[in-house]
Write a structure and sequence with these properties.
Elements lengths: L4 E2 L19 H13 L1 H7 L6 H7 L3 E7 L13 E2 L17 H10 L18 E10 L3 E4 L1 H4 L4 E5 L5 E10 L4 E5 L22 E6 L7 E12 L9 E4 L11 E4 L4 E9 L9 E5 H14 L5 E2 L2 E4 L3 H7 L7 E6 L4 H5 L6 E5 L2 E2 L3 H9 L6 E8 L2 E8 L1 E2 L20 E5 L2 H7 L8 E6 L4 H4 L7 E5 L2 E2 L3 H13 L4 E8 L2 E8 L3
Parallel strand pairs: 3-4
Antiparallel strand pairs: 1-13, 2-4, 2-6, 4-5, 5-8, 6-7, 7-8, 9-10, 9-12, 10-11, 11-14, 12-13, 13-14, 15-22, 16-17, 17-18, 18-19, 18-20, 20-21, 23-24, 24-25, 25-26, 25-27, 27-28
C-alpha cells in the first residue's frame, strides 16, 4: 500500500492502514463524554478551554506565509497558480518513485486541490515553480522559522506578513536532518514575535493551537490536542514528533503549534493522509529539538553534532536469543568505522550498547539522538554488553562531518534458515564479486531459493566476517559455529555479513 505520510522527499515513511471507527453505541458514548466533561472538577483538571479566540487573535500576527520560487520551470506544468509544499516524493504516492503512474497521479492530486483550476489564474506554461508554506517570527528583527523542505532548492524566498506586506528573505541556514530552516527579513519596524515553550512538559491530551497557510489560503487556525509523543515516522534519524489531531494540511508546513500559554511547543511538519488532506493525524517537531537547532543555525549557519562511528541495529528477539540476552533493550553494533571514536574506544561489532553518558539506551533510535546532542570533543562514558559481561568504556566524541554517515537507522533483519554455499576469499572471487582488497572471511557463493539463508537476506557476494563475537577466517569457522550452536540446542547463530552498503548482524537459524 502506498505511503500515506505527506512530507519531504527525504522521507522513507512507512505505510499504515486505518480501520474505520466503530459506530455501535456512538450516540450513547458521545452523550457520556459530554456529561463527563461538563462536570466542573473534570473540566478544571483537563483545562478544557471555552474558547481560544484571544490566543488566536494574539498569535496570528506572528505567523507568516513562505513563498519559495525555483528559477527553472518544472518539467511539466499543471493548471494551477501556485503549489503548496508538495515536494518530490511527497504525498500518498511517495512509495512509487519509479512508477510511470507516479507523475500522473501527483498531477491529478494537485489539480483536485480546492484553490486551483483552469482559468485566468492558471500558471502560464514555463512559469517558474512556486511552493507555499508557513513560518513564524522568533525575533522582532525579522528571524523566521520554517521547514527545510519548504525552501529547499529555492532560488528566491519571500515572506508575506499578516498585514499582507511581502519582504524578500535570506536563508540563514537549513538542517535537512531535522527538516528545519531559519530565514531573515529586514522589516521597517519590529515584528510581532513568539517565545519557545518546553515541549518536554507537554502531555498527551493537552490542548494546542496550530496556525498556518493550508492550500495557500493564508492565516488559518485550528485547535486540537496532543495525541501522542515521541513518534518516529521514518522522516529522519532524529524523529521525535509530537502527534496532534489539530487539522494540519499541505501548506501548514513550518507553521507553529502553540500551547494554551501562547508558547511554541512544535513546528508543524507532516501529515498522515491517503488523499493529501487532513485526517486528524499531524506531526510537529517538538520545540526542545527545534530550539537548539535554530539557535545553531542563527549562530553558525549550520548544526554541529556528535559522531561516534558505528552502524547499529535493533536487538530483535531472535538476535537476543542468539546472544543469550534477557531482554531486547540496547543497540547492537553491526559495524565500527575504522579509526572512528568508537574504534578508538574499543567498541567491537557484536557489542550491545546499553548505556551512554549515564543514560540507559532503550533502542537504536535513542542512541542516535544521544550521540547527536553530544558536544564534539567531549569524552563520554558508555557501557557495552560483550560475552555476557558489561564492559565500561570511554569514547572521545568527534564532530559529525557532512561527508560522514550518521549513526545507522535501525534495520530489521529478516527470518531465515540454512542453505548456502561458502568459499574462502580468493583473488578470483574478489574479482567476480568486486570485493574490497581487504575483505576477509567466508564468501557466500550460492544461496538456495526459499532457504534459511535466503530468508535472512544473504546473497552471493556477501562476506561473512564474524560468527557471534569471533572473527571468521574461512568457511570452516562458520560450519564449526553452526555445529556448536546445534549441540547447545540454540535456534540461531549470529553472523555478520558485509557488502557494499555496510555490515549487518543477522540471526541464521541452524535447525537441528
Amino acid at each position: 500500500m502506498p505511503s500515506a505520510y505527506t512530507m519531504p522527499s527525504r522521507s522513507s515513511a512507512r505505510a499504515a492502514a486505518l480501520a474505520p471507527p466503530a459506530h455501535v453505541h456512538a450516540v450513547g458514548l458521545a452523550l457520556s463524554a459530554c456529561l463527563l466533561l461538563s462536570h466542573p472538577a473534570v473540566a478544571q483538571q483537563r483545562e478544557v478551554p471555552p474558547t481560544v479566540a484571544e490566543l488566536a487573535t494574539a498569535k496570528l500576527p506572528t505567523v507568516v506565509t513562505i513563498i519559495a520560487s525555483s528559477g527553472a520551470p518544472p518539467v511539466r506544468q499543471t493548471a494551477q497558480s501556485e503549489q503548496p509544499d508538495i515536494g518530490p516524493g511527497m504525498g500518498p504516492f511517495s512509495t512509487l518513485p519509479d512508477s510511470p503512474l507516479r507523475d500522473f497521479l501527483e498531477d491529478l492530486m494537485r489539480r483536485q486541490a480546492p484553490h486551483r483550476g483552469e482559468g485566468p489564474d492558471a500558471a502560464p506554461r514555463g512559469r517558474p515553480a512556486r511552493a507555499l508554506g508557513s513560518g513564524f517570527v522568533i525575533d522582532p528583527n525579522g528571524y523566521v522559522v520554517t521547514n527545510n523542505h519548504v525552501v529547499e532548492n529555492a532560488d528566491k524566498v519571500e515572506v508575506t506578513l499578516s498585514d499582507k506586506q511581502t519582504l524578500p528573505a535570506k536563508i540563514v541556514g537549513t538542517d535537512q536532518k531535522t527538516d528545519l530552516a531559519l530565514l531573515k527579513v529586514d522589516p521597517k519596524q519590529p515584528l510581532p514575535s513568539v517565545q519557545w515553550g518546553d515541549s518536554d512538559r507537554s502531555r498527551i491530551g493537552d490542548w494546542v493551537l496550530a496556525i498556518g497557510n493550508p492550500f495557500g489560503l493564508g492565516g488559518t487556525e485550528t485547535a486540537g490536542i496532543i495525541s501522542a509523543r515521541g513518534r518516529d515516522i521514518g522522516a529522519g534519524p532524529y524523529d521525535d514528533f509530537l502527534q496532534t489531531d489539530a487539522a494540519i494540511n499541505q501548506g501548514n508546513s513550518g507553521g507553529p503549534m502553540f500551547s494554551l500559554q501562547g508558547e511554541v511547543i512544535g513546528v508543524n511538519t507532516a501529515i498522515f493522509s491517503q488523499s493529501g488532506g487532513n485526517v486528524g493525524i499531524g506531526f510537529a517537531i517538538p520545540s526542545d529539538l527545534a530550539k537548539p537547532v535554530i539557535a545553531a543555525l542563527r549562530d553558525k549557519g549550520r548544526v554541529t553534532r556528535g559522531y561516534l562511528g558505528v552502524m547499529i541495529q535493533p536487538v530483535e528477539q531472535d538476535v537476543a536469543d542468539a546472544l543469550g540476552l534477557k531482554d531486547r533493550s540496547g543497540a547492537l553494533v553491526a559495524d565500527v568505522t575504522k579509526d572512528s571514536p568508537a574504534a578508538q574506544a574499543g567498541i567491537q561489532p557484536g557489542d550491545v550498547i546499553t548505556e551512554y553518558a549515564g543514560n540507559s539506551v532503550s533502542e537504536p533510535h535513542a542512541l542516535t539522538g544521544m550521540v547527536a546532542q553530544t558536544k564534539p570533543g567531549d569524552t563520554v562514558p558508555i557501557a557495552v554488553l560483550r560475552d555476557g559481561r558489561v564492559n565500561p568504556l570511554n569514547v572521545h566524541v568527534l564532530e559529525l562531518q557532512p561527508t560522514r554517515q550518521a549513526e545507522a537507522q535501525p534495520q530489521n533483519p529478516g527470518e531465515g534458515k540454512l542453505g548456502l554455499a561458502l568459499a574462502p576469499v580468493t583473488p578470483e572471487l574478489r574479482k567476480e564479486f568486486g570485493l574490497a582488497p581487504y575483505a576477509q572471511g567466508a564468501v557466500v557463493v550460492d544461496v538456495a531459493p526459499n532457504s534459511p539463508a535466503a530468508r535472512v537476506g544473504l546473497q552471493p557476494g556477501d562476506v561473512i566476517t564474524r560468527v557471534g563475537p569471533a572473527p571468521v577466517t574461512g568457511p570452516a569457522d562458520v560450519a564449526k559455529a553452526v555445529e556448536e550452536a546445534r549441540k547447545a540446542k540454540k535456534d540461531h547463530v549470529l553472523v555478520q555479513r558485509r557488502r557494499e552498503d555496510g555490515a549487518l548482524f543477522v540471526p541464521l537459524p541452524v535447525g537441528s
